[in-house]
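Posted in: Protein Modeling Q&A

I'm a second-year student putting together a small comparison for a lab meeting, and my supervisor asked me to include a predicted structure for DUF4337 family protein. I've never done this before, so apologies if this is the wrong subforum. The sequence is pasted below exactly as I got it from our records. If anyone can share the C-alpha cell output, I'd also love a short note on what stands out.
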Amino acid sequence: MALSRESAALLTRHGRFALSVTLFQVSIGLAAIATLLRRRSLWWLSLGVGAGAASALLVGLVARP
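Accepted answer (user: helix_wrangler)
Welcome! Here is the predicted structure, written out as C-alpha cells:
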C-alpha cells in the first residue's frame, strides 16, 4: 500500500516535469519559426510559453510528491 502511494506521487511529479520539457520544446520551436518568418508576435508567444515552462518546472521542484 505504501509503495502504491509513493509510486502515484512520483508519477505525478514526473508528469509535471514532462509538461515542463514539452513546453520548453514548443517554445524553442516557436522561437525558431519566429526567427525564420521575422514575426515578432510569434517571438513574444515563444517567450510566454517559455515562462509557462519555467513555472511548471518550479512547481515540479517545489511541490511535495
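A couple of things worth pointing out for your meeting: Residues 31-65 form one domain. The chain has two helices and no strands.
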